[in-house]
Design goal:
Length: about 325
């Protein structure tokens, strides 16, 4: 790459001094290309430029790391969605059939949009997917797009897709920090795996505060566009490192794509019946979502709050 500038060995000519060079006119064509952190197989793998690097344990260089420490820079407050029409094949990766960054409508570059809106999509209905064990779910899976960075490389943010099973622990972690008045991007977060679960389920634990210098670097990243591109709030074309990974063990979706049907032929108008006395309408009953489980405050964060209290107390005593 350095040979591309071999003819520019001399200093910038005087007549060019002070001239604004909008090199972004050229560099913008390469796309975003931000890295992503994969958690497939309960292994932390950094995916960058099409290459995959498994993060190894500092204590045992021959074993994958069971946990990593990061700073959560920013999370998309809305659930993202991904839908794969085909069943998982071992070792396969690739972009989903349809996806949404905001859970409102398919992304502009989705391969095969299933519906105009996520709310009306048949793939987003509870029961549109049936697992191997007969459990019901949604063919289109919810996930959270989160921008993270290593504490010593805050200027190199990456994407972490938090899978459906980890959304509740993520929410509980944020709620516990909020009750203490601590911003989530002001702590070092230890990411690990719940080893009682067969599929990757993340755990979140605050282990320390960031330093003043680190917090300033976090604010600098939030002021740019890269973090927004990572979490999907700033428009950008899907890059190869966008973190899409076909979920293992998922059968093909049972629901079919919503298609525009030809308008039905109008029926002959029936004679209008005589007006009946007006009757008050029946009250509407709000539909319930079988996927929603209400938990008590103590159940939702007991152990997590204790961990954070212990961390904060240790820091106060130091």
């Amino acid at each position: 790459m350095s040979n591309d500038l071999i003819a520019l060995k001399q200093n910038l000519p005087a007549f060019l001094a002070g001239a604004a060079a909008a090199n972004s006119d050229l560099t913008g064509h390469a796309g975003a290309g931000f890295p992503a952190m994969s958690i497939k197989g309960k292994v932390f793998t950094l995916v960058r430029g099409g290459e995959r690097q498994i993060l190894m344990s500092p204590a045992d260089p021959d074993a994958p790391a069971s946990s990593i420490e990061v700073i959560i820079l920013k999370a998309n407050p809305k659930n993202s969605k991904t839908f794969y029409a085909e069943a998982y094949v071992d070792g396969s990766d690739g972009n989903p059939t349809c996806y949404s960054n905001d859970g409102v409508k398919p992304a502009p570059d989705a391969a095969e949009p299933q519906c105009k809106t996520c709310a009306a999509c048949p793939q987003n209905v509870w029961g549109s997917r049936t697992g191997d064990n007969g459990s019901k779910g949604k063919a289109c899976q919810d996930n959270a797009r989160v921008a993270i960075a290593a504490p010593d490389a805050i200027n190199d943010p990456m994407l972490l897709r938090v899978p459906p099973a980890s959304l509740k622990p993520l929410s509980e972690f944020g709620a516990a920090l909020e009750k203490r008045g601590v911003p989530y991007n002001a702590v070092i977060t230890k990411l690990g795996f719940d080893h009682t679960q067969a599929t990757p389920k993340l755990t979140f634990k605050a282990v320390n505060y960031v330093t003043a210098e680190q917090f300033a670097a976090v604010q600098e990243q939030l002021a740019g566009d890269v973090v927004g591109q990572i979490i999907g709030t700033v428009a950008v074309a899907v890059a190869p490192d966008d973190g899409f990974e076909m979920p293992a063990g998922e059968p093909p979706a049972a629901a079919k794509k919503a298609e525009d049907k030809p308008a039905a032929k109008p029926k002959a108008a029936a004679p209008k019946p005589k007006a009946a006395p007006a009757t008050p309408p029946e009250p509407e009953v709000e539909a319930t979502n079988p996927a929603v489980v209400v938990t008590s405050e103590d159940e939702a964060g007991g152990d997590l709050l204790g961990d954070i209290d212990a961390m904060l107390g240790a820091l106060d005593d130091a």
